[in-house]
Amino acid sequence: MYTLLHEFTHRHAPFSRYTARDLWTRPHIAQQMLTFHLDQGTDLASRTTDRIHAIVDWLERTIGLRGKRLCDLGCGPGLYAEQFAEQGADVTGIDFSRHSLDHAETSASHSGKDIRYLHADYLSDPLPGGFDIVTLIYYDYCALSPQQRSSLLEKIRSMLNHGGYLVMDAMGIPSLAARHEQTIIERNLMDGFWAAGDYIGMQRTTLYPDEAVCLDHFLIIEPDQQWQIFNWLQYFTPERLTEECREAGFTIETLAGSLAGDQLDRKSTALGIIAHR
C-alpha cells in the first residue's frame, strides 16, 4: 500500500501514463459514462442536445454535410453521428467502447438511420479512408500526448480525400485558469461512479502551468483490488492548435470560439477548428 500511495502522491511527467481505455471499457464505468452521455443535466461526458444541434447546424452552414462521407472519431453513443445523418451525411462512427456502440447501433436502428459503426481504437487500429469530413469532437484531442496528437493528425489526413475537412475542438487556456490543485479522499467517490460495490476513492489534481496541462489522477481502492486512472488534459492557445494542424499538413480554414461558431477572443474557453488537407 505504501508503494501505491507513494505513486499516487508522485508528480508524474505529463502524459507519462495513459489509461483512457480503462476509463471507457471497464464495464461499470462504461455504463456510468453512457448515463452521463445521455443525461441532459450535465456536460461531463457530452453536450446537451440543443448544443449538439447548434454545432451540427453551424457545420452544415459552414462546410455543408449533405452528401458528404463523414467519419466521427470517438463517436460514443452516436449523439453527433445521428445529427450528421439527419443533415444528409453518409456517416461512419468509430469508438473503442463496445458499450457505447451497442447503444449507438440500437438507437440508429430504432430511428431508421443508416449509420455504420466500427469498434476500433483510432490511435492504434487501421481506419477506413475516402472521407470528405473527419470529426474529433468534445475535446478528445486534449486527452492525448503530443506524440499521440501528431500521429493521429497524420492518420486523419490519410483518411481524407484531397480537400477534405478536419473538424475538431479543444479546450482554451482560459479553462485552465479555472482549475486548481487539490486532493479529495471519499468513500464511494463521485457517488459510486467508479465501482458497483464499496470503495475508497482518491482524486489528486495537479497543474503543469508551463506545459498548459492538468492531471486528474484517481486511485480506487476496492476490497479485493486497487487501480488508477490518469486523466490528462492539454489546454491550447489558438496559435498552438493552429501550428499543430499545420505541421500535420492541414490548412486552417476557420478558427472559432467553439464548434457552434462562437466568436473567438482572449476569453474563449473553447476552440473550434475547421481545416482542410
Largest sheet: 7 strands, mixed
Distance between the termini: 50 Å
Cross-sheet strand order for the largest sheet: 3-2-1-4-5-11-10
Overall form: globular
Question: What descriptive keywords fit this protein?
Answer:
alpha/beta, seven-stranded mixed sheet, four-stranded antiparallel sheet
What does this entry look like structurally?
With about 280 residues, this protein is of the alpha/beta class. Helices cover about 35% and strands about 30% of the residues. It has ten helices and eleven strands. The chain is globular and about 55 Å long. The model has no long low-confidence stretch (mean pLDDT about 95).
Give a concise summary.
The protein has 277 residues and is an alpha/beta fold. 34% of the residues lie in helices and 29% in strands. The mean pLDDT is 94.
Topology:
Layout: H1 2-9, H2 20-25, H3 27-38, H4 49-62, E1 69-73, H5 79-86, E2 90-95, H6 98-111, E3 116-119, E4 131-136, H7 146-159, E5 160-171, H8 173-177, E6 182-187, H9 189-192, E7 200-208, E8 213-222, E9 225-234, H10 238-247, E10 251-256, E11 270-276
Parallel strand pairs: 1-2, 1-4, 2-3, 4-5
Antiparallel strand pairs: 5-11, 6-7, 7-8, 8-9, 10-11
Helix pairs in contact: 4-5
